[in-house]
Design brief:
single chain; mainly alpha; 2 domains; 76% helix; 0% strand
């Protein structure tokens, strides 16, 4: 009886060890593929770049500045939209002052 339990336990441990090593093998394979793909992409990018290094850096800097500028403008626009929505829902502007009440909602106003 004890030998059977010991054999079952040993078989279970072997299966678990194989499963764990398979997981680590897949992770190592993925990491290796990611690294080699990045390296291959960088090499191909260098080989097929149509401009000189200085010109390419200038273009990349200009693209980066344009992307940052566009992102900043989009963030500012979204902030203004959200502030307007907040003022509409709560009646309080972001500066902490009460939003002006439209004439139809003023007490005693005729509408």
């Amino acid at each position: 009886m004890a030998i059977t339990a010991l054999v079952r336990r040993e078989a279970f441990d072997q299966r678990r060890t194989r499963a764990e090593s398979g997981h680590m093998g897949r992770l190592a394979s993925f990491a290796g593929g990611l690294f080699s793909g990045g390296l291959l992409g960088a090499l191909l990018g260098l080989l097929f770049t149509p401009d000189s290094g200085d010109e390419m850096r200038r273009q990349l800097r200009a693209r980066y500045r344009n992307a940052v500028s566009a992102g900043s403008a989009a963030a500012d626009l979204k902030r203004l939209e959200m502030e307007a929505e907040l003022a509409r829902l709560t009646g309080v502007t972001p500066a902490g002052t009460a939003a002006p009440t439209p004439p139809a909602q003023r007490p005693g106003a005729r509408g």
